[in-house]
Amino acid sequence: MNQKVPLLWIFLQCASALFSSAVGETAVLKGKDSGLDELPTDGKVLDGIKYNMRTSLDLEHEGCYLQTGKKECLEECGFNATAKTIFIIHGWTMSGMFESWMHKLVSAVMQRESDANVVVVDWISMAQQLYPDAVNRTHTSASALHGMINWLKDEQQLPLEKVHLIGYSLGAHVAGYAGTFVKGTIGRITGLDPAGPMFEGAEERKRLSPDDADFVDVLHTYTREALGVSIGIQQPIGDIDIYPNGGDVQPGCALGDVLAIAGNFMEVMKCEHERAVHLFVDSLMNKDHMSFAYQCTGPDRFKKGICLSCRKNRCNNIGYNTRKMRKRRNTKMYLKTRAITPFGGYHYQMKMHVFNRKQADNADPTFHVQLYGAQNDTESIFVDVHDDTIGLNLTNTFLVFTEKDIGDLLKINLSWEGNGESWYSVWKNIKKNFWGWNAKPPKPVLEVRRIRVKAGETQKKFTFCAQDPAKTEISPGDTITLVKCRDGWEVKPRKRLPM
Questions:
Q1: What is the pLDDT of residues 75-92, one digit of tens each?
Q2: Keywords for this entry (predicted)?
């Protein structure tokens, strides 16, 4: 089903609330009267902004409130100026209440960093507006936040390198503005699916950008466009920009999946936009099951399985565990994930040379692979050939993703789906034979002698050859079994920096 159809319907339903005043968005962002360059720097408390320092894992506990200029609040809250200080910033809201993700994120941060000062930046009174109005209020909220940080630095010698701002959606740009005007350089800003409308294509000083902190990392989970806009910003805006599942369709967030649980069209949008938060929470809670992202020029090349290298810092952990690399800007990285936590899975690059043998010029096979490992085996996995057709007498590269750790790969079953085994193969067969209904096509035969495999997470490389040297040919409905062999490919992984 075309994903754009339900999205257009959803956008139309919420357009009056989300974009009703967006006609003048260019003037708001780029005009001389935006007010961004005149943010106050005196650190005064601005009405409507609260800093709730969490003092207990009990989420029913109200916590303690900091106020700029009031040292007694720091003592009362037990603020430790030498520890990490993590500010968590929410985004636009219609409900006027914190969403459930906030409690999960705060709890995960506190459990991971038990000695840190964890502060929730509450700007709900300004965020609960029509979206364009809330965008304009991000400047005011950022002004208050950078005033608080400047005061802590001046009065408490807060080390800015230990300050980490985590902003979701519109809150990511609040973090960016605050980082711009802090006296000094903040250690890190994390943008969790930063808002796209009214920020896409804007100049750097009017959105989150790499210059706002020593290290800016961004997770993009909802970059799919409808009605000319994307809920999450599409362009890379950090030092490292990570696009899980291409930043497009997130597993478990399909229309049918969400409606079956929530029965609400708005939840479809929320599922993908909010996935960035849940991936970040997952990275905090599952240190032993970390997800890796791989540098690539774009999602199409990644889907082909080309970009699984860790050489020269081309791979990285995602979420809280993302490590700073040499100062680079807008490094785009990609990975696939599971639909539920733990989200991390396992990536395999497979290279398969397909030889045309008999009557196979227009074969267009639908291949599946089943992987057998030292720990587990997979189900049959559809080989998603991004170019839509298998190249004959060519080396085909594709990506295989497994949700569970199968251990060292021992064996591969390669099967060619028969013409009637799925609707996909039926439809391909109908299209192929549309002009020849009465002619029974001859049975095509292809030959696959070996498959070369690279495991993304371990960087190990192996070659698999036909278990039976006499059984290398395959036709619709057939299966070839391949086992490890040697043909000159590197077997041991290259050394890489520890994650």
A1: 999 999 999 999 999 999
A2: Calcium, Disulfide bond, Glycoprotein, Heparin-binding, Hydrolase, Lipid degradation, Lipid metabolism, Metal-binding, Secreted, Signal
448 shares its domain with 317: no
4 is a domain residue: no
Classify strands 292-295 and 331-335 as parallel, antiparallel or unpaired: antiparallel
Amino acid at 174: V
Helix/strand/coil percentages in the chain, nearest 5: 30, 25, 45
DSSP state of 377: B
Exposed e or buried b per residue across 111-149, where buried means at least 16 C-beta atoms within 10 angstroms of its C-beta: ebbeebbbbbbbbbebbbbbbbebbbbbbbbbbbbbbbb
Is 169 within 8 Å of 131 (Cβ atoms)? Answer: no
Told to judge if 169 belongs to the known catalytic residues of this protein, a careful annotator would answer yes
Domains in the chain, number: 2
> Does the bond joining 159 to the residue before it have cis omega, within 30 degrees of 0?
no
Query: Residue range 232-252: average pLDDT?
Result: 95
Same domain, 103 and 140: yes
Range of the domain at 329: 50-335
- Which pLDDT score, from 0 to 100, does residue 57 have? 81
Q: What is the CATH number of the domain that holds 65?
A: 3.40.50.1820
**Rounded Cα gap, residues 251 and 259, in angstroms:** 14
21: region left, alpha or beta (phi > 0 left; psi from -120 to 50 alpha): alpha
Average pLDDT over residues 370-394: 90
In 113-169, where does DSSP find H-type helix?
124-127, 131-156
CA distances from 423 to 67, 408, 417, 419 (A): 62, 33, 11, 9
Assess whether 354 and 290 both reside in one domain. Answer: no
Pairwise CA distance, residues 224 & 230, whole Å: 6
322 closest CA partner among 254, 380, 269, 244: 244
Compute the average pLDDT of residues 64-73.
94
273 assigned to active site? yes
| 207 annotated as a binding-site residue | yes
Higher pLDDT, 359 or 19: 359
179 and 250 co-located in one domain: yes
* Whether pLDDT at 197 is above 90: yes
Active site residue 193: yes
Among 259, 436, 251, 428, residue whose Cα is nearest residue 345: 251
Cα–chain center distance at 32? 34
**How far apart are the C-alpha atoms of 338 and 238, rounded to whole Å?**
25
Tell me whether residue 212 is annotated as binding.
yes
For helices 170-181 and 131-156, angle between their N-to-C axes, nearest 10 degrees? 40
Q: Could you read off the pLDDT of 465-488 as tens digits, one per residue? A: 999 999 999 999 999 999 999 865
The CATH number of the domain where 472 resides is what? 2.60.60.20
pLDDT recorded at residue 254: 78
102 and 242 housed in the same domain: yes
Residues 67 and 201 in one domain: yes
